[in-house]
Amino acid sequence: MQKHAASYAQIRENPRFQALVGKRNRYAFALSALIVCAYFSYILLIAFRPDWMARPLAAGMTINLGIPFGLGIIVLTVLLTALYVRRANREFDPEAAEIRRQVLK
Question: Among 38, 46, 60, 91, which one is least packed by beta carbons within 10 Å?
Answer without folding.
Answer: 60
